[in-house]
Design a protein that fits this description.
alpha+beta; ten-stranded antiparallel sheet; 10 strands
């Protein structure tokens, strides 16, 4: 399947992925699952508050079968109403429709149909990921209370936490937390309509000079579609 240009609106996915970054947790590592859950829930509340002081550049790339098909950049910041704002940088001009008679029109229609199919897939994937990112504090508490939370012993300066059946049966959300209780990574293994349509999400975090943690990179893999979406955030500076 050959797709050109901005075949999929990156905003569908990037908007929800970049909207959450974790702030610093408590100064010392939580001593129990209850304390860990409380720290994670507090982290979700603190993260967005801290990031509202900054603006940054979000770069989104979309690859199909390992070949990059689209790349966009946006200036990102929180507006006065608390909503995440995204302003395109260097948006490319739309390409002219191909000519060449009936054959050219049919080819254009096939390409357009593929675009629509991919856009629909991205919308459904985005809706699913919203259930995981940011993790809903109530869902975290529910998973812990249901006995679906597993905390591994600390290794190499971090704690690995898993939440089974977090949103739907047989899914898995895992977190890596440092021994200082800072959020390091988030991973999700889930699926769309059926388990064969697997979707994974890998989120990595960075820390600014003042200690504010942010989403450094997010990688979405949709194996059934040979689709990979990478969202990178960088260039943070105080919002004027």
């Amino acid at each position: 399947m050959k797709l050109k240009g901005s075949i999929v609106a990156p905003t569908l996915l990037a908007g929800l992925l970049a909207a959450w970054s974790g702030g610093s947790l408590t100064a010392q590592a939580p001593a129990s699952p209850d304390q860990l859950v409380a720290a994670l829930k507090q982290n979700l509340a603190n993260g967005q508050k801290q990031l509202r002081q900054y603006e940054w550049i979000e770069t989104t790339s979309i690859a199909l079968k390992g070949e990059e098909k689209a790349r966009t950049q946006k200036r990102v910041y929180y507006g006065a109403d608390g909503k995440l704002m995204k302003v395109p940088i260097g948006e490319p001009a739309p390409k002219a429709a191909p000519s060449g008679g009936r054959g050219g029109r049919l080819k254009a229609q096939v390409i357009e149909n593929k675009k629509d199919d991919m856009k629909d897939y991205m919308e459904r994937a985005s809706a699913l990921i919203q259930k995981y990112v940011p993790p809903n504090p109530a869902t975290i508490q529910k998973a812990k209370d249901a006995g679906h939370m597993i905390v591994q012993p600390p290794q190499q300066g971090k704690i690995h936490v898993e939440f089974k059946d977090f949103v739907q049966p047989s899914d898995l959300m895992s977190l890596d937390v440092s021994d200082k209780a800072a959020l390091l990574a988030l991973n999700v293994a889930t699926y769309l309509d059926k388990k064969e349509d697997a979707v994974t999400l890998d989120v990595r975090f960075g820390t600014l000079a003042d200690g504010t943690s942010y989403t450094a990179s997010t990688t979405l893999n949709a194996k059934a579609k040979n689709l990979t979406v990478v969202v990178a955030n960088a260039g943070h500076k105080p919002l004027k």
